[in-house]
Amino acid sequence: MKCRECGERFRFEVEEQKFYKSKGFAPPKRCPKCREKKWFRSMGIELPDDDLEEES
User: Fold this and answer.
1) Against a cut of 0.85, is the pTM above it?
2) If you ran DSSP here, which 8-state letter would residue 30 be given?
3) If 0-12 CB within 10 Å is exposed, 13-18 middle and 19+ buried, where does residue 4 land?
4) How far is residue 10's CA from residue 35's CA, in Å, rounded to a whole number?
């Protein structure tokens, strides 16, 4: 999938798809890194891009 915020491609694994479907959630529109940034912004914390840790 392609992130709507940064444009990077990310994987939406089968297990994640099953979880999202079971909860009635829409598929993610942002990569995990951008989702984390969005979560921090919602908490009132603005972080530079390089402060977030890369997921393996």
Assistant:
1) no
2) S
3) exposed
4) 12
Residues 6+ apart with CB under 8 A from 47: 37, 40
CB-based contacts of 27, cutoff 8 Å, min separation 6: 1, 12, 17, 20
Query: Would you give the DSSP letter of residue 44?
Result: T
Both tokens assigned to 15: 């297990």
pLDDT tens string 3-56:
999 999 999 999 999 999 999 999 999 999 999 999 999 989 887 765 555 554
- Using an 8 Å Cβ cutoff, are 3 and 29 in contact? yes
Q: Phi, psi at residue 9, to the nearest 5°?
A: -85, 145
